Amino acid sequence: MDTSILDSVSWVAPRLYNDALPQRSNVSKYVSSLREGRELEWDGRQIKVDIPPSKLVLGHPASADAVPARQLEGWQKEPDALVDHYRASPELLATVS
User: Per-domain residue ranges for the chain?
Assistant: First the structure.
């Protein structure tokens, strides 16, 4: 995401299903990495990726049937496990408004 437009969007919503999870399934580390302000080339220009956790809405699958492309992580299989995973991570809690 081009950070220059960040004030113009309500949220950024990465999907955390069907594709491999980023940062070797460490979603807390992924949230932190989006905040690091890294620059990359996109469409012939340099952009900065610096997304505050308060702008993130992480998309988790509703059930295992919604994820035919890969095996779910243990913490993604049940709603209670997902809640416990969030509560144990300051980085993930920062995404909850």
Answer: 3-93
pTM above 0.85, yes or no: no
Q: Which contacts qualify for 64-70: CB closer than 8 Å, 24 or more apart?
A: 66/17, 67/17, 67/18, 68/18, 69/17, 69/18, 69/19, 70/17, 70/18, 70/19, 70/20
Nearest Cα to 60, choosing from 27, 97, 90?
Answer: 27
Length of the chain equals 97
pLDDT tens, the chain, 97 aa long: 556 777 888 888 888 877 777 777 788 999 999 888 888 898 998 888 888 898 899 888 887 788 777 788 888 888 899 999 999 999 999 998 6
Paired residues of 59 in beta bridges: 15
Neighbours of 66 (CB within 10 A): 11
